[in-house]
Specification:
It is built from 1 helix and 23 strands. It has 275 residues and is mostly beta strands. The strands form 5 sheets. Strands 12-23-14-19-20-21 form a 6-stranded antiparallel β-sheet, with no helix packed on it. Strands 13-22-15-16-17-18 form a 6-stranded antiparallel β-sheet. Strands 7, 8, 9, 10 and 11 form a 5-stranded antiparallel β-sheet that branches. A hairpin with a 5-residue loop joins strand 7 and strand 8. The radius of gyration is 19 Å and the shape is globular.
């Protein structure tokens, strides 16, 4: 506790009923619609077939009471924010209009992949700002901040394929009716099948060590949104119920987008970089 943000005193300790790693980094509190969530980055969790792939994870725990009254949490309820190769240490802020916004670090500690190919003079970056909301089942949803839409140019119907002059795009596929695949530059594939998401790279040079990853979904995908921002790709399923972030390092001058997903509508907006 602190009255001035400088001098602090201990209030109480929060522990997990079950083992949940050996250290929790980057604690944050999210309060939405009268419910509280504890966001943490636990280190030392064992990887499983369809989750917890990274060396260190980032996620949240629903709380039964306010943070001031909580001393024990249910570690089995830990939900990952992002299932991609590149996400850690999210920070959560309150916007002036009351929105809760999350920014994550698109970096990795894993030794089998790099964050940048040799010769690139910089390394990590941040995700897009994400608006947090609460689903009916209590799960937290993440969506790109609504201000991103102001950067959209003239949309094009995706159909089977579209080419854009730069790797800056906002892709939305809605009313998805079954399995299918979205492919970027012929190198990065986003595959939907039943209740699985599979993201894979065909070109090791573009992937910089990333290969293939499968994620189990709470339910079949009906809406897919993908935002490409040069060296980053952020994938949002079902309004942000599941999110997957990755770095990539495309070699092509233009962005090629092709889709084999059966859907009601699919559009691609070029994004305009300002400033």
């Amino acid at each position: 506790r602190s009255d001035d943000g400088v001098a602090w005193t201990h209030h109480h300790t929060i522990r997990s009923r079950e083992p949940l790693g050996y250290m929790w980094e980057c604690p944050n509190i999210v309060a939405l619609e009268g419910k509280s969530y504890l966001a943490i980055c636990p280190q030392g969790l064992e990887s499983e077939t369809l989750r917890r792939h990274n060396r260190w994870q980032a996620g949240y725990l629903p709380l039964d009471a306010s943070i001031y009254e909580t001393t024990l949490v249910d570690g089995e309820g830990f939900i990952e924010w992002d299932f991609g190769w590149d996400f850690y240490a999210p920070q959560i802020f309150s916007a002036g209009d009351g929105r809760s916004l999350l920014l994550g670090w698109m970096g990795t500690f894993d030794e089998d992949r790099s964050s940048a190919p040799d010769g690139l003079p910089w390394c990590h970056c941040l995700t897009l700002p994400r608006e947090l909301s609460r689903a009916a089942d209590g799960r937290l949803l993440q969506a790109p901040a609504r201000e991103i839409e102001a950067l959209r140019g003239t949309p094009a119907d995706l159909g089977k394929s579209v080419q854009l002059p730069d790797h800056l795009a906002d892709i939305v596929i809605d009313g998805i009716g079954g399995a299918g695949m979205l492919i970027l530059d012929g190198a990065l594939s986003i595959e939907l099948s039943d209740a699985l998401l599979t993201v894979s790279f065909a070109d090791p040079e573009i992937a910089a060590g990333r290969t293939r990853r499968k994620v189990e979904l709470p339910r079949p995908t009906r809406m897919l949104r993908v935002i490409v921002d040069r060296s980053t790709v952020e994938i949002y399923l079902n309004g942000g119920e599941t999110v997957f972030s990755t770095r990539w390092f495309p070699k092509a001058a233009q962005l090629s987008v092709s889709s084999g997903i059966v859907c009601a509508s699919s559009q691609v907006w070029p994004l305009i970089r300002r400033g």
